[in-house]
Amino acid sequence: MRQYNFYQYIFWTLSVAIGGLLLGFFLFNISTRVFLFIVGPLEPTSMVVTTPVQIRAEMHFKRPVPVPKLSISDLQKIESTIKAKAYLVKDLDDNSNLIMRGSGNKFPIASVTKLVTAMVTMDNLRGDEIVQISKKAVSTTGRQGNLSAGERLKVVDLLNCLLLESSNDAAEALAEKLGREKFLSLMNIMAGEIGMLSTKFSDPSGLSALNTSTSDDLSRLIEYIEKSRPDVMSITTRQSYKVIGGTASRNHFWLNRNRLVRDDNDYYIGGKDGFTSDA
To answer: Can you point out the beta strands (E) in 187-258?
Structure first.
């Protein structure tokens, strides 16, 4: 009888242990499903991909290589090779204009627009806020950034997509998050506050030929950003940025399209280029 009780004890002990494991596994699955149902899809994890080039680029913003002083003869030689209808080269240290042509004439400014788009975003949205990419946003001309309708990305991710890949889709998605008309109004208000009195924004990406400015105004813009907005400048000097997708987003790997960054230019401290046929 004692032997029977011992085996019975072992049997029930093992049964309870196995049953507990199965019950725990079942409850874990249920709780995970409930968590996903209540909280929603797991958001993507973002990270800056560190490379030797990127480290040097970010150092440029903090400690740029001193630009050699150019003589009047040097400047005249440079000026003779420039074919642009309007330009302005300025020394930000002493605020002097070195060479210029048609600096007060208005022209479309293409993706240079996105510098103001980035600042309005940073001033009005938190970096960890989630933006769902709309069909309308991805229908914008251009595929830079490779975004898809329905994806959910953080504002900080879209800012990197905006300034590195020069994504028009990201620009529209960020504007939609705040309300497109309100966003454009804030862009024009910001331009006035900076002193860009000859500048007008009609879209957040720069695709519109109605986004116009002058070399004088763009000089004021970059001077303001260089002195007051390290949050913008630091993004523009990055070599790359990676998003590890979750259930809400695909994986993304964005590279800086600016040649000065790709070529690791020693004198580059940040900024934005742009191109459209009108510009």
So the answer is: 212-213, 240-244, 252-255
Per residue in 193-219, pLDDT tens? 999 999 999 999 999 999 999 999 999
Distance of alpha carbon 70 from alpha carbon 211, whole angstroms: 33
- What are the structure tokens assigned to 248, written together? 């809400």
Cα–Cα distance measured from residue 183 to residue 198, given in angstroms and rounded to the nearest whole number: 19
3-state secondary structure 6-26: HHHHHHHHHHHHHHHHHHHHH
Q: Nearest 5°: phi and psi at 206? A: 100, 0
Which is nearest to 167 in space by CA: 136, 150, 146?
146
Shortest CA distance to 257 belongs to which of 165, 131, 179? Answer: 165
Q: Is 212 helix (H, G, I), strand (E, B) or coil?
A: strand
Predicted confidence (pLDDT) per residue in 150-182, tens digit:
999 999 999 999 999 999 999 999 999 999 999
Amino acid at 211: N
Q: Which two tokens stand for residue 40?
A: 């929603």
pTM of the entire predicted model: 0.77
Task: Strands of the chain (E only): list them.
Answer: 45-47, 87-91, 96-101, 107-108, 130-132, 152-154, 212-213, 240-244, 252-255
Phi-psi domain of 217 (left: phi exceeds 0; alpha: psi -120 through 50; beta: other)? alpha
Decide: 96 and 87 in contact? Cβ < 8 Å: no
